[in-house]
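Box 3.1 — From sequence to structure: RNA-binding protein
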Amino acid sequence: MNIFVGSLPFSAKEVDLRESFEAYGSVDSVKIITDRETGRSKGFGFVEMPDDEEGMAAIEGLNGSDFGGRNIVVNKSEAKPQGDRRGFNNNRGGGYNRGGGDRGGYNRGGY
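Predicted structure (token representation):
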């Protein structure tokens, strides 16, 4: 079971998160998401537990609990559908020359 953990303090360490979840069962992996440029925690992460019953027990036991001075949010992570993912260039249009006909825009022609 893949579990989402939110509202983590920025000082949270993966080893501490693992210890909290291991109180409920076996943990396969722990990943705190960090900013690519700064390396700073984004305040959320994911924990993977192989047994669904242990995962549900961890969710029930840890959701709303204090972790490093913050009440964390813990729930089952749902996979994002492929259609919802957006790339860098998502073809939204825009730019200066958006006006058409007599509606204006940056490049107004001979006005």
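Summary of the box: The radius of gyration is 22 Å.
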